[in-house]
User: Fold this.
Amino acid sequence: MGKKMTRREFLKYCGRISLLFTGSLLFAEDFARAFMKIGRGEVNILWLQGQSCSGDSVSLLYGDSPSVPELITNIINLRFHPVVSVAQGDLVMRIIKEELRNKDYILCFEGAVPYKMLGACKVGEFYLTDLLKKVIGSAIAVVAVGTCASYGGIPAANKETGAISLVEFMQQEGLNKPYVRIPGCPTNSHRVTGTVAYIVAFEKLPKLDKDNRPKLYYPDIIHNNCQRFQYFAQDKYVTDYNQKRECLFKMGCHGPITYADCPLRRYNRNTSWCIDANAPCIGCAHPKFPYSPEEGIYSDPKKIRPKEKIVG
Assistant:
């Protein structure tokens, strides 16, 4: 699965996490203690999925600092993950039942919940909705990973299954647990590992905005940190994809209305993000994503949402 971290590498990683999440190296020791608590089994991670494409899990697999092999062999006690774990069948159910008894885990949930078509998602012999009530009820905290879990996303755009977000499911069922939304389709792996590390290190949720998103990862609209902002200010726009530098707003870029840190923390080991690939931001972290068929993901955000503030 990957070589063991040395003490030096471990402390260096904790420093990077501290810098990423707090803007300071002062909390490196707190994060080190957090990971040691997880490694000793004091806090476990249970990852479940609903209606999803597993994109958030794939994004996690492409993360670094650390890589997934380093993460699950050296740092966290990942009890079950439907994509990463080898466990299947009865063994999975035994793990879940054990966690329900111990009540010492953080629940990470990916995907939407099929609220009106219960058979669309099952875990073992249980409908996902029935199991979720128990799993959420026993969790220390709940992390809604990705836009589908945070807002309903693509599954909720089709009303056939009655798909809703994990957060809405909790509200519908009266499940009062501390929760964090980490939207994105898929979300960046740094947001997930950093949020979980913070919860364990400080035994509380990170600073959240009014929508329960970590302020560090959703500090401002994408537009204000975009490397092409200067072209917006100069009214220079891409009108043909052969153009590689100007602002993509007139191609339907939703950066001016979407809160996320994509320009600051790129995807795939900090390789790239949508604008780097000369594609407009489709607002995948926005609560309304993927928008109605009339609007479409490449429509002019000024025309389809005139009440929302366009900054710049």
In short: The domain at 7-202 is CATH 3.40.50.700 (Rossmann fold).
